[in-house]
Design a protein that fits this description.
Distance between the termini: 58 Å
Structural class: alpha+beta
Radius of gyration: 22 Å
Number of helices: 10
Largest sheet: 7 strands, mixed
Shape: elongated
Strand order of the largest sheet: 2-4-3-1-5-6-7
Order of helices and strands: HHHHHHEHEHEEHEEEH
Strand content: 5-15%
Oligomer: single chain
Helix content: 40-55%
Number of strands: 7
Length: about 250
């Protein structure tokens, strides 16, 4: 007779949580089909090795699982880092203390948000292509090094001048962190998600790729249509209005 107790329930819950975070990881990176393949291997391994006691089949699948785990860690090290950062951030004491702390910088933060919004609206009207990355919890120092360091206050004129068509930095991404424009002309990882509409260019793919490996918010202004888009948590939102953009950025800066 099979004994089923509290320990087994806890065991199942732990596995369920692990599978959930693996599902989030695969979904955000556009490789959800790979998740189903991994899940199929786990089911086969449990059936062969644990339930039907098929030692040979179970051993072979077990070896594949061990090697596959190492391969997954190598392939998705950036995404794993992001998930672990998200988990750790929920237990951050400083986030709790902010609830009881009077925010003195609300006006400054609002001014910074509106500078980005106004700049994007202006570039949208003139169909000036732009890609702005706003740092959240995860540091973006490695990506900043791929461009030219600026370290300047956030203001409309500077943002527009950097993305002006004749500017040498207009093709890369601007990174905003710590209430400063840290760098421009930065190179971002490009997403290979096959679900991205064909009419979207490299800026959108780079923004989506950045949102898949970090928790940053990426704002894109299309050079072809002037439309404003936002990439966040591995998802791309098109045709973003000024109020919506303000709302999204207010939660980041």
């Amino acid at each position: 007779m099979i004994q089923f107790g509290i320990k087994d329930i806890i065991d199942i819950l732990i596995v369920a949580v692990m599978l959930y975070y693996l599902y989030r990881l695969m979904k955000s990176s556009g490789t959800l089909s790979l998740f189903y393949g991994v899940l199929a291997f786990i089911v086969i391994w449990v059936l062969a090795y644990e339930i039907f006691d098929m030692r040979l089949t179970g051993t072979i699948v077990d070896k594949f699982m061990s090697i596959g785990l190492i391969v997954l860690v190598i392939l998705f090290q950036d995404q794993i880092k992001r998930v672990l950062t998200d988990i750790g951030a929920h237990g951050n004491l400083s986030n709790v203390m902010k609830i009881f702390k009077h925010e003195k910088n609300n006006e400054r933060e609002h001014a910074e948000v509106m500078s980005i919004v106004y700049a994007c609206m202006s570039m949208s009207k003139s169909k000036t292509g732009a890609l702005i990355v706003v740092q959240r919890k995860m540091p973006l120092a490695d990506f900043e090094k791929t461009g030219d360091m600026i370290d300047a206050d956030i203001n409309v004129r500077l943002i527009e001048n950097i993305f002006f068509k004749n500017s040498p930095l207009h093709d890369g991404a601007m990174i905003i962190a710590g209430h400063r424009i840290k760098a421009a002309g930065c190179i971002l990882p490009v997403s290979h998600d096959m679900n991205i509409p064909k009419n979207l260019g490299l800026r959108h793919r780079a923004a989506l790729g950045m949102s898949q490996v970090t928790d940053a918010i990426c704002v894109i202004v299309s050079e072809e249509t002037g439309g404003i888009s936002v990439a966040q948590e591995g998802k791309l939102k098109l045709k973003v209005s000024a109020p919506d953009l303000e709302h999204v950025l207010s939660n980041a800066i």
